[in-house]
Amino acid sequence: MLTRIVLGWREWVALPDLGLAVRAKVDTGARTSALHVDSQWRFHDGGAPWVGFRLGPEGVSGHLLEAAAPIIDERDVTDSGGRTTRRAFLRTRLQLAGVERDVEMNLCNRGGMMFPMLLGRTAMARTFTVDPARSFLHGRAPARLGEPVIHS
């Protein structure tokens, strides 16, 4: 039998390719993961579609973070309020509980939410299980990432 790592309903997550550590709501009801961005813009590089995005400086320890990534897909996503929007998806590395893996996530404005990131079930598949009565079981994000850290 496969032993899965137990997560709480909220955890610190590192996204090292973006130089980011963020508090995430662990949500088995969400299929995909979502990352809050204050703004985003599309462009082409080498003929391929890319998305640029900006986070902060509110809640990012006073630092503005700008990053860009290739768009791997664009899909309609229905939020918990029933609103459907077309979102850009990117692939990035995620570090959580000693596990590192590539995950897909979409970019959206989560400004009114308590957590800047939503960790969906496809990012947790085959490795993690969730104990909804517990939180932050794996401590803060790795210090080696340095700033910025989104606290929200």
Automatic annotation (TrEMBL):
PANTHER family on file: ATP-DEPENDENT ZINC PROTEASE DOMAIN-CONTAINING PROTEIN-RELATED, ZN_PROTEASE DOMAIN-CONTAINING PROTEIN
Chain ranges of the Retropepsin-like aspartic endopeptidase domain: 6-139
Molecular function GO labels: peptidase activity
An individual GO BP term: proteolysis
Species for this entry: Lysobacter korlensis
Keyword Hydrolase: yes
InterPro entries: Asp_endopeptidase (IPR008503), Peptidase_aspartic_dom_sf (IPR021109)
The protein, known as: ATP-dependent zinc protease
Alphabetical UniProt keywords: Hydrolase, Protease
Keyword hit for Ribosomal protein: no
